[in-house]
Amino acid sequence: QVQLEESGGGVVQTGGSLRLSCEASGSIFRPNIMGWYRQPPGKTRDLVATITISGKTVYGDSAKGRFTISRDNAKNIVYLQMDSLKPEDTAVYYCYADPRSGLVGDDPYLEPGARDVWGQGTVVTVSS
Fold this sequence. Notes:
- It contains no helices and 12 strands.
- The strands form 2 sheets. Strands 2, 4, 5, 6, 9, 10, 11 and 12 form an 8-stranded mixed β-sheet that branches.
- The protein has about 130 residues and is mainly beta.
- Strand 5 and strand 6 form a beta hairpin.
- The mean pLDDT is about 95.
């Protein structure tokens, strides 16, 4: 069972930067898709960015041009570099992994019935 642990949240001023990290542990399985979602106070959880093992990325509209997602496949860690932060970026940021496909070693692994895996969340507060 893959477990996700986020780190790197905190308080930053408008225009500042933060880097979030998320390490997947507890299994030799490497999910193909990992990424970040966020949930501002009183709002729904929305996509920030995802990345595949091969490096293909997808960004939510709010992240385009300011955030960069990257991944260390050997360590099973995904990063989110956030620059030019705005007060509206204030949210709980959740690490995400799709365990339905990935790799065990170099071998493809599929588990169609698996459920999404989420971290416990890390709080980012951008002060004006």
